[in-house]
Amino acid sequence: MASFLVQPLNETTWPAFEALVARHNGIWSGCWCMSFHPEGIGRHKSYEQNRAEKRARVCEDRAHAALVYDGDTCIGWCQFGSPEELPRIKSLKVYREGLRDLPDWRITCFFVDRAYRGQGVADVALEGALGEIAKLGGGTVESYPEDVEGRKTSSAFLHNGTLAMFERAGFTRDRRIGKDRWVVAKTVKPKHASGSRR
């Protein structure tokens, strides 16, 4: 893990992000990490359309992620953004029933190159995302991980990470929004007093 570095997703790092996604068939049959954005995905969207919409968001600073690198190769990421940037979370109806205030930030998705799974990349990506959030002004951060304690779960269904990983990072449980899915939250202090959010 000591050799892994983190960089924000932007126009400069797009080629490395693009290479990782392309190595994995666009992620989940061509999602390109668009599922949680307002545009969403679906049968009416092609691989190329999802790619183009993601690239447009990145170029316009409307998509955020912490990218994990091994040398020059991007090997994973943690997606984050404001609720306006990432409105399409799972279990939304149940989530809204218990909602008091929207968070400043959401963490919605992790992905790790198949060759690097089980090496702590997701933990590094989460730490990197929290660091980027601090640089962008900090605030309340929410996520919606799965509690996998005591049961076997395919990593393919853990795109939002595990409850244990978030608790290791200092998040606390707020409420349950599914059989095994929780809302977790943490307040991140700004890294610079002059930092502006989003």
Feature tags:
alpha+beta; 198 residues; 7-stranded mixed β-sheet; disordered C terminus
Cα-based radius of gyration, to the nearest Å:
16 Å
> What's the count of strands?
7
Shape: globular
* Beta-strand residue fraction: 15-25%
Task: Give a verbal description of the structure.
It is globular, with a radius of gyration of 16 Å. The two termini are 29 Å apart. It has 198 residues and is α+β, with helices and mostly antiparallel strands. It is built from five helices and seven strands; from the N terminus they run E-H-H-E-E-H-E-H-E-H-E-E. It has helices spanning 14-23, 47-59, 92-97, 121-135, 163-168; strands at 4-8, 64-70, 73-81, 105-112, 139-143, 172-176, 182-188. Strands 1-2-3-4-5-7-6 form a seven-stranded mixed β-sheet, sandwiched between helices. Residues 194-198 have low confidence and may be disordered. Strand 6 (172-176) and strand 7 (182-188) form a beta hairpin.
TL;DR of this structure?
By secondary structure, the chain is α+β, with helices and mostly antiparallel strands. The protein has helices spanning 14-23, 47-59, 92-97, 121-135, 163-168; strands at 4-8, 64-70, 73-81, 105-112, 139-143, 172-176, 182-188.
